[in-house]
């Protein structure tokens, strides 16, 4: 169930972020990414607390990425684990720039 929950959301050409709304780092990531001009449907935030399998989903994320904490960011089907809580403003800017370029490249 948890593997299917995660796997069916991660798709090529999309940025998918697994979050918990109560998590400060998740909210910070969501605020940053929501400011970028992604085409409709290319950016998705997945609230893992909206299911009764939150613990199982985090266990699967740990098995898949090496850690169970959120946010977990997947860009274009690839795993990108970001330690959001330790990112400086400059790192956030660079992340935003990379994701902006990703969203622009979807138009090409």
What can you see in these coordinates?
The protein has 108 residues and is of the alpha+beta class. The protein has helices at residues 2-7, 24-34, 54-65, 89-105; strands spanning 15-19, 43-47, 72-75, 78-80. The chain has one domain (2-105): Glutaredoxin, CATH 3.40.30.10. 43% of the residues lie in helices and 16% in strands. It has a four-stranded mixed sheet, covered by helices on one side. Strand 1, helix 2 and strand 2 form a beta-alpha-beta unit. The chain is globular. The mean pLDDT is 80.
Q: Helices and strands: which structural class? A: alpha+beta
Specify the CATH architecture.
3-Layer(aba) Sandwich
CATH superfamily: Glutaredoxin
Strand content: 15-25%
Order of helices and strands: HEHEHEEH
Domain Glutaredoxin: 15-78
Pfam families: Glutaredoxin
Keywords: Electron transport, Transport
GO molecular function: glutathione disulfide oxidoreductase activity
Give a brief rundown of this model.
This protein has 108 residues and is of the alpha+beta class. Helix content is 43%, strand content 16%.
What keywords describe this structure?
single chain; 108 residues; alpha+beta; Glutaredoxin; 4 helices; 16% strand; Glutaredoxin domain-containing protein; glutathione disulfide oxidoreductase activity
Write the layout of secondary structure elements.
Layout: H1 2-7, E1 15-19, H2 24-34, E2 43-47, H3 54-65, E3 72-75, E4 78-80, H4 89-105
Parallel strand pairs: 1-2
Antiparallel strand pairs: 1-3, 3-4
